[in-house]
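Troubleshooting: if your tokenizer reports a length mismatch, compare your output against this known-good record of 283 residues.
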Amino acid sequence: MRLHVGCAMWTHAPWNGSLLPHPLPPAGRLRAYASWCNAVEGNTTFYATPARSTVETWAAQTDPDFRLVVKLPRTISHERRLTGVDDELRTFLTAMEPLGPRNHAFWIQLPGSFASTDLGTLAAFLQRLPRAHRYAVEVRHPAFFSEERSARLLEQVLGRVEAEWIPFDTVTLFDRPATSYAERDAWMKKPRVLRRSHALTKYPIVRYIGRDDVELTINGWDYLVAAVVDWLQEGRSPTVFLHTPDNVEALTLARRFHADVHARLPELEPLPEPLPAQPPTLF
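Known-good structure output:
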């Protein structure tokens, strides 16, 4: 029974010196983060496929049971919209090979304009993917969340290849007016969609974004804690990523979420002990 929790990144300036040791060389930053969480979103790959040597450093900094959910480059998902991308996909998959078992799933985030009328394109793309990996799809078109037929069609497409649907839960974010610059910015950029907590596979993945107010964030995830407990008891292995608009408390919130689940399932494997942010003193 394993729950993976993490954040949207493994480096964030507000964490330096307060939660994570600082300064750290690039080859030590993921290692420090991995002492707090056992998973992370691989968002950087959305902007460009990294060099294979870079991916090798990610693997070297983490244990085999650490998990990355790595996003496909935007050239594949947004610019080419999953068509005519065989060369780009081959380059990307080759670069990711050093991750080995750390690669939890390849994350296909689709643009908000990708609608149910595009599901044939998605189905053809998924069918061509190597079966050696797991895949998870994030859609943002409102119809997939508000129209039963669109949701059912998407689930059918994903079910044929045992791919997961990644919901981005923004309900808590939009529950009340923004009170900070970071929250206002998030309101402009994040999708406003209905909540979803239905797993399609043994490996459900949820992205949850709260508020900069820690208590509001915690109060908003009660339903998700209950869903994760149910998934674990069903034999599933869920992954939950915790976001806030400024992400200052995201690391501590990820551990708090794991603790809330652990309180209901004491047999759950604990997270590692974080590295000290400051060197020990004599007094």
